[in-house]
Amino acid sequence: MAISGYSGFQLVRHALTGHKNWPKAWRDPEPKERYGVIIVGAGGHGLATAYYLAKEHGISNVAVLEKGYLGGGNTGRNTTIVRSNYMMPGNTLFYEKSMQLWEGLSMDLNYNVMFSQRAILNLCHSDAQMDAAAMRGNTMRLNGIDAELLDRNQVREMVPLLDMSDNARFPVYGALCQPRAGTARHDAVAWGYARGADSYGIDIIQNCEVTGFLRDNGRIYGVQTTRGDIRADKVGLAVAGHTSHLAAMAELRLPIESHVLQAFVSEPLKPLIDTVVTFGAGHFYISQSDKGGLVFGGDLDGYNSYAQRGSLPIVEDVISCGLAMMPSLSRLKMLRHWGGVMDMSMDGSPIICKSPIDGLYINGGWCYGGFKATPASGWCFAHTIAQDRPHELNEKFTLSRFERGDQIDEKGAGPVPGHH
User: Fold this and answer.
1) CA separation (Å) from 169 to 123, 172, 174, 274, 330?
2) Is the pLDDT of residue 419 over 80?
3) What pLDDT is attached to residue 410?
4) What domains can be seen in the chain, in order of their start residue?
5) H or E element: which one contains 278?
6) What average pLDDT does the chain have?
7) Angle at 347 between CA 346 and CA 350, to 5 degrees
8) pTM of the prediction?
9) Shortest CA distance to 365 belongs to which of 339, 391, 346, 337?
10) pLDDT reading at 176 higher than 70
């Protein structure tokens, strides 16, 4: 069977109609009065949660509510990097579960998510960073995760465009490489999970904004929306940068701040970079898309915001990092840039748990780790909702860890060893 879900004849027939007669990949239903589970947010995490609720737990009386259009939030506004090079207990095996799901995702969904295992290199610019990379790599290997510590010459061979000269502002000492890491097509991930969830009878309801919660004696039993009240036994939030905003409607205060994270793409080029590279001297990461554009990003804007737009100081900072790493980028034109709203937890790690409010479940606080975690996030959140208890892979991602001081702090160093 073709991964796309169509035979060759069907593809040719649909291609010749100018897209006019293509069958819909999922329905556009009216909301019912009641569901077993409501998931708020039709991005990757929300759709994956709904899919695994049906596939793994037999729960298909589910609605996924989206205030705008499917995949219109951070799922469609990221740099598409997939990796599992985490070191802290709680993160390490969780992200490796996600990597394993990624590796079989196109086959599982019968939909090509364009997952490309092209490796990731985290560059090191000092002996201390090489030591930190070795420690991270050893942790990964002890947990059965692929990791290789590369010397300077091996890095030069893999990425010839790097400034490896004696005059480099930040000399490259080596890199930590995860060969199984890579990229995936962000839109295709949302579409594949949506199509899969719909095939189980799950309702995906777009243009349906949640404006409040239905409560009785402290328990949440549904949501108020722009399309009327909808009741449910359980409500799960998977709304990224708007997690704290929605939780506040339920009188729940979360240890989360919302920030803008920008991403960029250059004009299309012939093949230039066949891997993912991150810059250890600054927060910068780059890869090349299948269309030829260089996709890259950097650090957060330094203020709280819900705006999906960029700012010039970060544009300057990101591009200066890129030019320090690869001077030849200076001749490129930038095609566009955009912003996503990041929900930053206080320790840099996510929250996937039952909330203190009966009937409400939280999936948020993803910081930089959201897209790569999509499969495992949905898989674990579905388990938590269905079983009313966490899976061992997300049992550390509780809200209560902030009260206990039991934080899972990668120091923002998942993508950049030694960078705090």
Assistant:
1) 14, 10, 15, 24, 16
2) no
3) 82
4) 35-79+186-255+351-402 (3.50.50.60)
5) strand 276-279
6) 93
7) 95
8) 0.94
9) 346
10) yes
